[in-house]
Structures
1.
Amino acid sequence: MTRAIQVQGLRYRYPDGTQALDGIDFHLDSGESVALFGANGSGKTTFVLHLNGLLRGEGSIEICGLLLADDTLQDLRSKVGVVFQDSDEQLFMPTVLEDVAFGPLNLGLSPEDAMTRARTVLKRVGMAHALDRAPYHLSAGEKKRVAIAGVLAMDPEILVLDEPTTFLDPPARRDLVTLLRGLPQAKVLVTHDADLARALATRAVFFDQGRIAGEGEVIEIVQRFHWEYS
Amino acid sequence: MHIPDGFLTPPVWGTLDAISAAVVPWVARRAQRDTQDQRIPLLGVMGAFVFAAQMINFPVGPGTSGHLVGGTLLAVVLGPAAAALVMTAILLLQALIFQDGGVLALGANVFNMALLGVAAGYLPGRLWGRKPVTIFAGGAFSVMTSACLALSQLRISGVPMGGSVLWASLGLFLISALMEGAITVAAVRAIERLNPGWVAGGPQSSSSRTLPALAMATLALVVVGTLIASAAPDGIQRLTGQGGTASAWNIRMIDGIGGLVLIFALCFLGGKLIFRRRSA
Amino acid sequence: MHHLVIDRWSRGSSPLHARDPRAKLAVLLVFLVAVSTTPPRAQIAFVAYAALLIVAIRLARLPLRGLAGRAALVLPFSATFALLTLWSGDALRALALAEKSFLSGMAALLLVSSTPLTAWTAALEGWRAPRMLILVIQFVYRYLFVIAEQAQRMRWAALCRRGTQKGYFDFSAAAGLLGVLFARSWQRADGIYHAMLSRGFHGRFVPSPPAPFRATDAIFCSTCFAGCLAIRLLL
């Protein structure tokens, strides 16, 4: 069975010379959810930016059996949906509907089909009432749901979420967990939030200075690396 | 400096709307050639940045503070075409949403601030290299250009601005111009310290200076010329604003502006010809 | 904030909101030209224009006082020049100056308060405004408040630590603030570009087709044109 993600020997050096990733081996099975822990600057976000080719390093990355390369980039970007930490950077179109339709339009759907798909996905995330609203007016939780919708509209096999619970209040956080639990895609969760990881992920990987320092069950990793706030 | 509706007469706003409507698409094509669609979020964000930056007060003395206008800063960071396009977008939003400047007068405001204002801010650096002194000069020239053009357009439209009022306005604008220069230099220096790559490099020493020099001369000519010409129709003082009846001054006005546009066009085309011959 | 109120108003619903944005834009221009070319002695015309605007505002179900208040922001500027004109002995012209700028401001405000930004920018694009300009306008508008709010928070934070130092230090602090705001804005633009790429963006924005121009819109246009023309020529 082909794995959803297979990364081997990933290395990446920043333009200023720092070795951001120093030989990462990573895998993700279909339908599995993995949490990425690590200090700020340990390479977690740099790593996930490689998964859809925004950054290109040395080593091999296979998504659903397809090797990441210049000619497969566009295809793979529809398979890997990335939800960024800052929703304001993700929702850049004037209205919610237009923003969610952005992905499908780029995939080549007709404007009508793109809008239909956008409406369906917005209903799925519970934001069907906000079609014509400007993203600025939404709360952090609502923006996060619209951002997820924008990514789901591309029908991905894998979801990557970078610090999804930043700025969310407890109710919004609960809603997010419920939403993510109900989505069948394989998930990579970059997070400091141990509770989120425990709720959603079956496995955790710990990043330290560009390398993987540990891998195992979420609770075990949290305890081993003292990854709780108290 | 934004001229509202109701101040300019139809020949003035009509001509300037026509000029801007013709030049802005050309500027957009230039900007597109230099930046590609991927830079559109950057242009948009820079526009929002300039808007927001205008809220930050720079104290320049007891009870006086100024704020950034931004044309020169944009030109330094994005290049002249993209800067002109962003300024046009800003002016359009300011006119429609913020009631800062009129809609019919948009052509005039775009001409004064987004086109000639940005050009005036960019040219000193283009001619003499990117240094604090040229950035300062750029900022100051940019504001003075926009101000002089606006004042001329108002005068040609019959808004009474006798000698003392004119000199007082020019004096106030000069202070704003100097502030713009100082703020732009300070901002560029702060930005450079964070990342030198953000400030677009100066021109190569080998690139011809003829066209920019000619452009600079034409700009000065147009600005000073319109200011002087706006004083020429002395009949304006006696006008009661009866509009259609005194057709003579309509024609004289069109003549005046038309004449200057013609001079500008001739200089521009002449410069292009010389430039092409040089490189042939 | 001002533009947030207008944004909210523009998403309302009313017979005026439902009209095609191109029609509304055309009517605005005709109105502005009529007002601009009206001679100062035709004071009754200005009253008629105001009446026309009030009818339109009622049609749009918008608050008259709110709109008038915002349009009045142009008055301090016009008042200065109106006074100058008054000094030079032309009272009618001075009055006309104030009236024209106020009425024009109200009309423009009415357009943007009854038409969402995407709609009127699409109308401009239909009239062959350069696509790049339209996109830049939309992006500037989208990030206007985000960055302005950032600037506000940074200003407050700086004010909290201002103490009693003044003069040069404040100037350099403001410059530093501008620099950091610029840096964050630039990084934000990078983030947006990454988000665009991640959703399949491959170089060109895909435009959406314009809605068809309906008979109601044509009737609306011709009625307003006729009204403006009548006022301009008869009064």
Note: The CA atoms of residues 140 and 149 of chain C lie 14 Å apart.
2.
Amino acid sequence: MTVRRKALEGIRVCDFTGQLAGAGATKWLAAFGADVIRIEDPVNQGAWDILRTMPPFVDQRRGPDFGGGFNNHNTEKRGITLNLRTARGKEILAALVARCDVVTENFAAGVLERLGFGYDALRRIRPDVVYVSNCGFGHTGPYAKFKTWGPIVQAVSGLTFTSGLPDMEPAGWGFSYMDHTGGFYMAMAVLLALLHRQRTGEGQWVDMACCDVGLTLHGPALLDYTVNGRPMRRPGQPNGNRSEWPRMAPHGIYRAAGDDEWVAIACRNDADWRACSTVIDEEWARAQRWADLGGRLAGQDELDAKLTAWCAVRAKSEVQRLLQAAGVPAAAVQKPDERIDHDPATAEFGLWPVAHHSKMGDVRVDGLPVRFSETPWSIERGAPCVGEHTEQVLTSLLGMSAAEVAELRQQGVV
Amino acid sequence: MSALAGIRVVELAHERGAFAGKLLADMGADVVVVEPPGGAAMRRHEPFVDDVPDPERSLTWWHYNTSKRGVVLDWRHPEGAAALRTLIGGADVFLEAEDPGELAACGCDDAALTGTLPRLVHVSLTPFGPTGARSTERATELTILAGGGPAWSCGYDDHDLPPIRGGGGHGYAIGCHYAVLSVLTALLHRELGGRGQRIDVSLHAAANVTTEVATYGWLVAQQTVQRQTGRHASATVSMPSQVRCRDGRHVSSGVPPRTPKEFASLLAWLRELGLESELPEAVFLDMGAARERIDLSKIGIDDEVTAIFAAGREALTFIASRVTAREFFLGGQRAGLAVGVIYSPEEAFEDPHFVARGMQVEVDQPQLGRKVRYPGPPYAFERTRWAITRPAPTLGQHGDDVLAEAGLDVARLRASGALG
């Protein structure tokens, strides 16, 4: 038996995904050795994935091959162009699907179907195909036709609401958390369906909706509602960085010395608070009223004010160091440069691999936060330029000649 | 048929990893959660049924341990450690989130397992990985989000206010998502002819690569994003996108109209509401709708384009002031605009769309003698079954069964004190 070096070697994916919610899913698969082939439109130069042309940029160059986010989310994938408005384009796609284990997409509901490649068509081409669609509201239900992007998913699924201070408008999430998370579940769906196929020989369609995923992330809060009848929309909620489940105090993000510098502190129990108060070593911190959790919760505003005053004259790294030395969870709120370029824990984990992009050159990208002893992930190649692997894929996988590909190019099919 | 039928998972109860176990169990894996005598710490987490603290009434425990079986075993006791090794010996996956070094005490650390169990997938979820400069630091869900990046991007325009992390335990959820992806990938590798393996998931690393542009903005262009109320943190200040409606609730107005079609839709919506005459800027919507195209790069340069673009935003804010948040959401979406109501979790749960998609499932809850509604499946499989097959285990509920199935002498274990 040959030793498998890559966990997903031999799995081929016909990938229509874009943005982070879709591309993030196939990034995982590609990093573990799946052959992920992106299919893009030659007419608009793959512009459906708006990240192709969006900042950040490595230099002054602009265009569909220079979007920094696109490069970050599409490492280790191949890319071809195919004009699906043409009959020949559809034929080539069908031939490709026949050679793929998985089809992934995150178009609005119904788009792939209108192109003639809905699930029924796909499984006529390949009966055991795994088809995973991922759209904001899913393919069924009253809002199936509604449009979304990350922040809208977060708003409607209840996530935006959970971030904020009492009596203020929601602070929300300052990034598309649900694009990341939708991508996680999309990749899980692919892997689960492949495991199912491995055991039964059956393919299937997985209708994934980012809003469904978002809703499932509120577990205990929803049970508090269904069992205790207590809604989260009530006075005093949400309550910033405090912790109700489990109850902890002090528990928050406190101002540290400097401009917009902050440090998080969480005392998990009375012992943590004793250790914390010993570090603080001031009269107020030793007060008996703070000794047990009940007292600290009852006087939380005052306790936070005192702790803020103590932190505010110290560097965040110093607060972290002092409290960690005493065994108390504390962490500086790290800015991007601090955690990326100056944090030994990310460097040691190899979290920022350098990927080589054909036009952008060597660019650091997000790695994966996991280490596999037998089949480590690998990210060395950057995202494909528009149509970068068209000839390679059509010749090696579909057995076309270079001349045939050139003709297709002339006809505007690729 | 479920995708993970026949896959046996031994999980050491820990708040950091419980969600990963649930995700596997709801997909059909036989997950046995091993608790110490007295029960897992999570059983003492609020909220409790009727606010009565009791290890069998923690709703946090209930949620994160659905579909699992439960056994009590003191793995720090020599006989308990031996029993745990036996359980792991019969498992496909060992899922744990102990602090680095803790498992050496029971002989279940990496070296002990990989030597003897080549098919085992051992996933270890730790704050900073098993070794390294920060591996002994203490962490909670909050400190992970603070140190790992997400918190920096979240909060208000007013930077006198601290960064605000989203509530709901996401510091652990992110790591659990990566743990599940890892388990599934390793299982598939095994099914395709490979061996088992040891996998380390770092919560800190997981948070670091779950920050979208905050990270790649720095990696690519050394840009530092700044937090802004209700919208993406950004290296440049963007326009507010959260709007307050007539009922005092908020909506995300999304990206304002940019195309002639969107201006036409917005104007049609305004007319439908009978509000056109009250908004003087409506004339610019009409101009936007009538144009061939709208060149956004002319904003601030061409007066007409500037006025058209501003009118789109004005119209959305104006409509919001006259309708409820839900009306705004439905009206806007029907007009083809990607806008969203900011629901609280329970409002989302009760929305007809999610109900129609089966996002409420009922589970028999023996403690209450009735059914309880839980959140449903995060993905809709056509053939593979997702199900909450049983409520979270009561303390030691399946101990005798699980231990006997593994060929262990339950009476002897009990007498040794290894079962607490």
Note: Chain A has a mean pLDDT of 96.
